[in-house]
Amino acid sequence: MDRRFQVFVSSTFRDLQDERQQVIQALLELDCMPSGMELFPASDESKWALITRVIDDCDYYLVIIGGRYGSVDAEGISFTERECDYAAKQRIPALAFLHRDPGAIPAGKTELAPAAREKLDAFRVKAEQRMCKYWRTPEELGGVVSRSLVQLMRLQPGEGWVRARFASNAEEVQKLRSKIDDLTASLEAARTEPPEDAKTLAQGSQVFRLRWTFNHREHVAKLSWDSIFACLGPTMFDEASESDLEKTLEGKIAAEAAVERWHVDVRDEDFQTVKVQLRALGLIQKSVKKRSLKDTDTYWALTPYGEHYATVLKAIPSDTGG
């Protein structure tokens, strides 16, 4: 009877997206079912309980360690290390994949704070005490994962999952259906929730001082992040170019300052900050649509969470006053 094994892939997320893609591709080519924390943002205990249930259901556990320690919980432990410790406690067959040369990782993907670096180094030492392999590039990592997992499955065969029509009893069928329901529910929840690490960023009613010039004189617009996104969000329901977003923001400033739009020029540094902040908050993402070679502009679109948030901001509330 053909069985498919479920594999939990643990890592920091933003700095290892390319690496995770290669690992997931390798798992799919082995007919395995990948699971990962990006579907279950661990920002509170209920979500952590969901993650532990998913890890419990997995046949194997993989952890990828690059140059970031990641977001930490109330005890100062990263969620990646917390998952790793839980898998070890549950005696789930595990593999660790460590970057071979951490010093060569780009600065934007490494820990700069000494405390975080110290925790990362200690985590690497802990991982090296288990079944451990090394990698340098995302492509190399995919091959290392494939070979290592095949060997692990041979040494420690997992229980695996089977199709319902091949299930030996109704209990196994129900277990599969419950798993599908849990995964579907968690995925839908993640689509309309902010990233786990966004809670530490400026947002909502917090004010951003945005500099702009009018007739060669500099002014400052004090705008909340909600007002900025309420202005820019609707333009990206069907995607928008970066230049159009800048013009839209300048139009809002001109309207509030009661000046001619064409004489307003937002400081480029501040516009870039707005763009980066909205992206970090999980509200916008770069468009992946193919365009003509002549079109050199950058295009942005709303994430599922961003679309939900923009709709809430702009929708007209019910008039409860009669």
Topology:
Elements (H helix, E strand, L loop, with lengths): L5 E5 L6 H13 L3 E4 L8 H13 L2 E6 L13 H11 L4 E6 L14 H15 L3 E4 L2 H18 L14 H22 L15 E8 L2 E8 H8 L7 E2 H16 L6 E3 L1 H13 L3 E3 L12 E4 L1 H11 L8
Parallel strand pairs: 1-2, 1-3, 3-4, 4-5
Antiparallel strand pairs: 6-7, 6-9, 8-11, 10-11
Helix pairs in contact: 1-5
Can you walk through the features of this model?
This protein has 322 residues and is α/β, with parallel strands linked by helices. It folds into two domains: 6-196, Toll/interleukin-1 receptor homology (TIR) domain (Rossmann fold, 3-Layer(aba) Sandwich), CATH 3.40.50; 201-314, Winged helix-like DNA-binding domain superfamily/Winged helix DNA-binding domain (Arc Repressor Mutant, subunit A, Orthogonal Bundle). It contains ten helices and eleven strands. It has helices at 17-29, 45-57, 79-89, 114-128, 138-155, 170-191, 225-232, 242-257, 268-280, 304-314; strands spanning 6-10, 33-36, 60-65, 94-99, 132-135, 207-214, 217-224, 240-241, 264-266, 284-286, 299-302. The strands form three sheets. It has a five-stranded parallel β-sheet with strand order 2-1-3-4-5, sandwiched between helices. The termini are far apart. The mean pLDDT is 87.
